[in-house]
Amino acid sequence: MTKARLLRLSVVLVSIFMILLIIVYWDNVGTAHFYLHTSFSRPRSPGAIAAGEDWEALPDVDEFLAKLLSSSLKQNSSTPRKTEQLLVQGSNKPVVSNLEENVRGYDWSTHKDRNSLDQEKLQVERQRTLREFCANSSFTFPTKERSFDDIPNYELNHLIVDDRHGVIYCYVPKVACTNWKRVMIVLSESLLDQGVPYRNPLDIPREHVHNTSTHLTFNKFWRRYGKFSRHLMKIKLKKYTKFLFVRDPFVRLISAFRSKFELENEDFYRRFAIPMLKLYSNHTNLPTSVSEAFGAGLKVSFSDFIQYLLDPRTEKMAPFNEHWRQVYRLCHPCQIDYDFIGKLETLDEDAAYLLQLLKVDRLLRFPPSYRNRTASSWEDNWFAKIPLAWRQQLYKLYEADFVLFGYPKPENLLKD
């Protein structure tokens, strides 16, 4: 009887050990190989982590995993790292039509003549503003009070992880996310070109950039690691450098409208334009293809789009599409302590400073600015024909993004 019990105990222990090994060495680029060397991600030496420093708030399972991962990190510390080389950026650019050029607003200049900002103070101010309003009980918005454990896995699909450099990026559509995704692909070496990882972000085709299989996101953890997924997420959130980029919420809406409804987009026409045209413009018997609709002069108006956002039926049918979903719903800034908050309005300076802090500025440069020409000064023109009551409702819908990220309330749009 005693031998049988010992045998069963041995099988259980071996099984647990094998599960932990699988977690550590996932996809041949496991957490055991990440580098805790970024200058502002609260790095700790392997010895300090193994000693339990900075882990006292974690549950026992988290602490055990952290120590195991740190032990593995020690064993791999002697592995020589590749010599960092400054990459020469190629001159190739995505091919765009004149219409797309006008609507999307590509700008390939490097803006070297821009005055540099005091980035360190800027980051302190942005993070202070975010923390203060997250802690302010009088300022409320949906999902603010929930904990990280309360966030469903499918809402974590915008958190992209690079284990090689210990970086987590929450991407926000219409905020230079295409080029930031390219940067994450280069850093993580998650995509190969003829067997070799991409080195120049602009070499990566756009269709690969937005392919969900290209990126390791938090949403994929639960499928791979089951009940251990949340523990691993917490460890990474504790130790990795986390960043996001935002922009003025109303300008982002204008940009999303121009990109998805002024250009011929078959998917968005069928999923969103047809219902909008039927509900808010009283059109019937609409063409089945976007090219036919555009040829007949049938396009969604900005007024249709705003009505769609304000319509209570919209959210009842499905959550907002990511291109106009609020940032607080995409990136959960009150549940995740971001180390860096960038803004599209200061993209060039913020990007250069972030890559420097991540110590990867000698590996790559942020691609020449993808600067949408949707300027803040355009808001008056775009909203001129939108009723005041709608504008006020729209502000309440996006108020949290304005407040959390320090954007001024657009008083000129909210008063007669």
From TrEMBL:
Q: Which of UniProt's keywords are assigned here?
A: Carbohydrate metabolism, Glycoprotein, Golgi apparatus, Membrane, Signal-anchor, Transferase, Transmembrane, Transmembrane helix
Query: Which GO CC annotations does the UniProt entry carry?
Result: Golgi membrane
Name the membrane topology term: Single-pass type II membrane protein
According to its UniProt record, where is this protein located?
Golgi apparatus membrane
As recorded in UniProt, its EC number(s) are 2.8.2.-
Q: Which GO terms describe its molecular function?
A: sulfotransferase activity
The answer, when asked if Glycoprotein is one of the entry's keywords, is yes
GO terms for biological process, alphabetical: carbohydrate biosynthetic process; proteoglycan biosynthetic process
User: Which Pfam family name is an example for this entry?
Assistant: Sulfotransfer_2
Broadest EC class?
Answer: transferase
At the top level, the lineage of the source is Eukaryota
Where is the chain membrane-spanning?
A: 7-26
Predominantly, its location class is Golgi
InterPro entries the record matches: Carb_sulfotrans_8-10, Sulfotransferase
Protein family per UniProt: Belongs to the sulfotransferase 2 family.
Q: Which PANTHER family match?
A: CARBOHYDRATE SULFOTRANSFERASE, CARBOHYDRATE SULFOTRANSFERASE 12
Q: What is this protein called?
A: Carbohydrate sulfotransferase
Origin species, per record, is Certhia brachydactyla
What gene codes for this chain? Chst12
